[in-house]
Amino acid sequence: MDKQKRSLKRIQIRDGFIAGSPIVIGYIPIAIAYGVLAKQAGMSLFELTGMSILVYAGASQFMGAGMIGLGASALEIIVATFVLNFRHFVLSLSFVNQIKQYPLKWKLPLVLGLTDETFSVSSIYKKQVDHRYGAYFYGTIILTSYLSWVIGSLLGGVLGDVIPERLSQSMGVALYAMFIGLLIPSVRKYKRVAVISVVAMLINYLVTPYIGQGWGIVVGTILGGLAGVFILEEDKV
């Protein structure tokens, strides 16, 4: 019986690794870019890797590294990343509902390691919830993705000291590519999202000279999001 259990667990782990492999392939180059940029922003190898271990949020880490490079305060960075990551509350509630039959010892670590990508892939495999030891499937997706991000960040930090300065500076485009990559799918689905982006951009541009770049990002994000409540509601009508 124990042998059968181990076999079933191995199958779920194998299937989870296969399902999560596209995330791993996508995470590594972006994590390397983050590591290089964070190093360029003045963060140590320990600090940039620690951020990946503890924060584990790609877009927020890019933004955080950029704000550190701009000399933003800790409070500005914390508020900005909180606002940017607020969507994870919704993702977590949706995923917990998907795995509601799992015990709490599984729910907590699975939700803690949730990202946009792991949520999307896990949502595709909803039927896996009913499989015996299905938690191992979701756990493998999340764990392999997490490790690939941390290892990629560490590698990027190491490369930041090795690769030519001109090349490392050119990787700054990865920050913009990351946010554009997050924006384009939403714009395709809801055209008015582009309007929200422009509103947030203009607010940031207008207030930055008075309150600084760090708080400018925070205010632009919050007011742009509030504008989206009315703009998207109008679009639905």
What structural keywords apply?
mainly alpha; 12 helices; globular
Structural class call reads mainly alpha
The largest sheet is:
none
Distance linking N and C termini: 58 Å
Compute the average pLDDT: 83
Shape: globular
SSE succession: HHHHHHHHHHHH
Taking pLDDT < 50 over at least 5 consecutive residues as the criterion, the unreliable ranges are none
Radius of gyration: 20 Å
Total helical segments: 12
Q: Percent helix among the residues?
A: over 70%
> β content, as a range?
under 5%
Question: What oligomeric state do these chains adopt?
Answer: single chain
Q: Compute the number of strand runs.
A: 0
Kindly describe this structure.
- The chain has 237 residues and is an all-alpha fold.
- 82% of the residues lie in helices and 0% in strands.
- The protein contains 12 helices and no strands.
- It is globular.
- 30% of the residues are buried.
